[in-house]
Amino acid sequence: MAKNTGNSKVKKKPNADQMIALYMDYVLENEKTPRSVYKFAKDNDLTEADFYEHFGSFEGLRKTIWEKFFDNSLSVMEKSKEYKSFSNREKLLTFFYTFFEVLTANRSYVLYALSEHEQSLKNLDQLKHLRRRMKKYAKTLIQDGNSEKSLRLFEQNEMIFSEGVWVQFLFLLKFWMDDNSAGFESTDVAIEKSVNTVFDLFDNTPLERVVDLGKFLWKERMA
Q: Which residues form a coiled coil (predicted)?
């Protein structure tokens, strides 16, 4: 066994999560994206190889951040014993509540990342991987629900529902970004009303909740 002389230190390479943390800190402290991987690595006493071991570009890293938000949310939910016994409606409500708690914990970064470019579509490009993951999650909810239906006639369309959940998320994301209420309470209300509306529409129940949601959104925007 080689002796440790005490004079040399083996620098531990950062893992993907640590690299993401360094990037988020850099962005928030400098209020801009690093100009190059070389500059970012040098400023953090790393090598370019350290960065490329985990990500092919800053674009890939940004997309991974949103996937991490998603994974963290699922991890929190699945640790709850009650979650498995929830109805699909309750599971989606729990997911959105949890996901926006994660976003709130990283609000400064999220607000910067989604307003960095003047073109909103360019800002949304970083959500591509999240979109795929979220739609897949939504499909599993509907698949579980359809498996309990005895007649195919009453089965719900997975594609339409999953796309609807994604559009719903984008609406809630914009709502949360503009929310000035204490503890983002208005966002919690918007989540509850919008999720109930989506499930009511799919269950062919009366549209009172749609009207209720519309009144709420009108009140919030006119206040």
A: none
Tell me the pLDDT tens digit for each residue of 151-195: 343 345 677 788 888 989 999 999 999 999 999 999 999 999 989
Q: What one-character DSSP code corresponds to residue 183?
A: G
Concatenate the DSSP letters of all residues of 137-174 into one string.
HHHHHHHHHHHT-SSGGGPPPHHHHHHHHHHHHHHHHH
Count of domains observed in the chain: 1
In angstroms, the CA 114 to CA 3 distance is 51
- If one counts every other C-beta atom within 10 angstroms of the C-beta of residue 170, the result is 12
Domain that includes residue 102, residue range: 86-222
- At a CB cut-off of 8 Å and minimum separation 6, what does 53 contact? 13
**Stated pTM of the model:** 0.82
